[in-house]
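Hey, resending since the last one bounced:
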Amino acid sequence: MSADARAHGRAGSDQRSTPVVRSGWPTVALVALTVVVLLEVLRTLYPLGYALVGSFGFIVTPVLLLGVFLSPLLAPLVRTAGPRGSLLTCVGGLAAVRLLLQLLAPPSLWAAVLASAGSLVAVTVVLSAVLADRAGAAATALGFVAAIGIDAALKSAYAAWDRVWQPGPGPLLVTVVVLGALLAAGWVAVGRGLVLRGEPAHGRVGRLFALLVLLMPAMLMLQSVAYVGSSGQMELPWAALVTIGGAAVALPVTAAAAAAGVGRFVGLVTGTALVACVWAMTSVTGPFVAVLAVVGQVLTGVLLAAVLADEPTEPWRPGIVRSAVGSTLGFVALFVLTLLYPFHYEMPLPVPNTVLPPLAVALSLLGLLSRRTHKDDRNGVAEPTFSARAALVPAFGLLAAALAIGAGLVLTAARPAPLAVPAFPLTVATFNTNQGAAAGGALDFVATADQITALDADVVALQEVARGLPLSGMNDFAAWLQHTRGTTQYYAPAADRQFGNLLLTRVEVSDVQVLALPQGGGSMKRSAIEATVDVPGAPVTVFAAHLQHRNTPGSVSARDQELQVILDRWAGAPRTIILGDLNVNNQPAPNGGAKLLVGADQANTLQPLLDAGFTTTQPTTRCTMPTSNDNCSDYVLVTPDLSQQPPVQVLPQSTVSDHHAVVSVLVLR
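The structure tokens again:
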């Protein structure tokens, strides 16, 4: 009987055994690079898909995107290409769609949808082929952990901004190298006997579901250089070292766990510890986050080894329908949990969104229920696996990459210019960056940074700065900006540590403090940054804020509370500036035209500031100088001892953000 005939498993649904897959390190590499490409593609889809909210709203948009995550149900159709052809076709197709995204950089939504659907199908087929025996299960666990490190390395090398958004020969060359390695791993693995040979009658659904739902905490936290950097309050090189190095530590531990054949009890204990670890990462800040990230990666590897340890041997059936179902359930859970995390800030869940990453880990424990007791010796042939000692080689490779990338980030970082002594006239500006997204959701950090530089301001207040939020593709604009432009900056988390405000300065400032504003009935937490601009003999106090954005009674009340905190902190001090996205309550005018800024109910953000004596040359009654669509949201207000000369400028809208930048030149009266 030929190898292809045996691989097909033509004996029918009552077949009692299947040939052993001699998995090796090429199979580990295949799994790792397949998952790496998948992560890059999915991070592209999220910001582009989020741009649909403006047209379809927060309910319809997720429903539309959900169709993409149902695409693994198409995986059984690929099997018609044969046991070897189907696997090679999927690996080649995965490489093709990822290359397409890079050639189109920045890609469009349709390209991201196509690439995502193709990637989900390809991952389903690859995992179906690999998960055929105990060695394949070990290869999958090791490949998953290796993917965490490789992906973190690739992202860190580009200063926490995915290269899929970056045109040019450099990102394209790196992509070609990665995809070439993927194709080579697939070709060698197939040459060594890896083919799509069917699936067991039991267990495959739960195992694939458990594997894929674990991508949620991995993407969002454990391997996210943005999350570790923002929550850990550490510089980019250190965050890169932690995320890549964590995978290096986890690899030999995972190999040892897989070789030992860890049981359900160990898996349950490990999973419980991982739930606690992930929950702690959502609750703490500072250097302890780095420790939790490394521990979390190690626990993830051991949990996968436990979930995937035993592949039921009988009956073995042709087809991969169960694999497709398990993959679909896992990807849908991944999509829903990842999307609910940021959507909580628009449509609050009945529970804090910090329960979602631990929930994903808890759901993965369901995979332990799919384990069945069977003999390790199948047909008299002992199944090969991987030793911890052998895993030290790729582990040291990842560690070397971590050190090299960390050193490279230090050496290539732009050096900040010396801060100037501030003096009048003093130029300040505010700009809502919209997470660095251009029209259609494409992330353009370069254009956003160029817009900020063009403001030529001494102090700039930025809002909606994303540092690992899923809707920004888990990218870190603050870290990228500091690395590439050498900015002196101060970050204030708002909704969470992955979304907040940034204060940039090119002059000397002191007493910088973050003000946590009361959430009240608003949909998310907000913050303000207080700083003193050290003008000799005439220091200036700056409050940079981003207030609640809805006009519901709860949000209006919350804005009043937020402003009161700022006004109480101000306490009548001279030479004070309040600027930022104040989300003024714009109301339609009865007779059309420019919106009203002060309605009959006085439910308006500006009024308390005007009543306190702050002034501005921007309109305060009708929105004749819109800063966001047809609304006046972004303002610069000053105390009477400061004069805005010339009047405040609302700059033309750039190619990035849905807001205009607002610039004001200030002099002493």
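The first helix runs from residue 3 to 8.

Sorry for the duplicate.
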